Amino acid sequence: MAAGDLELQQLLERELERQQTTLQLIASENFTSRAVMAATGSVLTNKYSEGYPHKRYYGGNRVVDDVEDLARQRASRLFGADHANVQPHSGASANDAAYMALLEPGDTVLAMRLDQGGHLTHGSPVNFSGQRYRFVAYGVTPARPDGSGERIDLDQVAELARTERPKVIVAGATAYPRTIDPQPFRSIADDVGARFLCDAAHPAGLIAGGAHPNPAPFADVVTFTTHKTLRGPRGGAILCRAELAADIDRAVFPGLQGGPLEHVIAAKAVAFHEAAQPSFRAYAAQVVANARALAQALAEEGFRLVSGGTDNHLVLVDLRSFDPDLTGKVAQEVLDGAGITCNRNQIPGDPRSPFVTSGLRLGTPAMTTAGMGGPEMTEVAQLVGRALRGRSDESTLGAVADEVRNLCAKFPPYPAGGH
Ligand SMILES: *Cc1c(COP(=O)(O)O)cnc(C)c1O
Questions:
Q1: pTM listed for this prediction
Q2: For atom 6 of ligand 1, which residue has the closest CA?
Q3: Are residues 200 and 169 in the same domain?
Q4: Atom of ligand 1 nearest to the CA of 234
């Protein structure tokens, strides 16, 4: 790869080395299979194919039509959906298209608060969503000492649905460590005559692997990313009921996008196939088991966890319990220096800004793919605790970095090289 381009070759090798020798705990990242990478790097990148299978604006799409049909069929079958659109370039593009299909500018949408787990595309004022539509936000219940709080406040969702009369209700989050049950959202939407959009960007792989409830039978539209827990190429996809298929397809193209990335669509087809295998069910279950093990070990290190733990692939750490002066920003930088890659995150009711924050988000999808299990999660939590306690001591941080390197050496995601 990158034959003759020594400059880029060296960059790829540096990135492979980084991925193999440090802990990847960003909850939205994963390690794809070589088959996914091969499809992404295939000749399909050469083809223009505006339109949809058998309805293209360019010639020469016989093979591409079969590729995209295969991806659509596999996606529909995997989630039991009537229709799939596999062209969105990303999760944000998928949401953009879903809103375009369901809403007019200025319409009201009910979605989760951004500082309590929602995504930028759920109505942030700096995002197209918040600029084009009128978003009203629901949140989580207050924290409780027994860990039963900080769950989506369904009473508030129902109350806001009654008073605000949204056209669409969005479920889905980017930093919420608990299961999102689609059923109550469906019945609240029915009560007020709203559409129900489930943004399953994060748990798509857990859903495909049977570890989390499938929103497809309940939601009018499901958007998701293919690169998070689903472990495919970077991209998005949309599932919907048959009667919305034409509206969704029209919103993606010609509404928002130009030519689809058929090489990435081929890689999505690979990922949907992989996610339908029994081994992926075992993977999804292990991702959740690992997150539970990580949560328990972090609690033993003295960290309070938002909602008291996790049901999914991520934990949200409240750093104030560990050290009131330690911000998410500093913790992220300290851990990065020790080879532990994760991101700072606001926690519900965070007094600090999104750039500073009082929380850390840690996820298990990537390290589970690399083969780590419960004992390694305990070790990771202890390394996090040691690094943050000893953050002003160079020798402690050096010792943690050495242990991280040793641990990673036992679980290389790409043992025979990445490319
Ligand atoms: C990640 C995410 C997205 C956006 O996906 P991108 O591919 O980064 O555009 C949308 N919604 C939620 C809930 C997400 O977590």
A1: 0.97
A2: 91
A3: yes
A4: 7
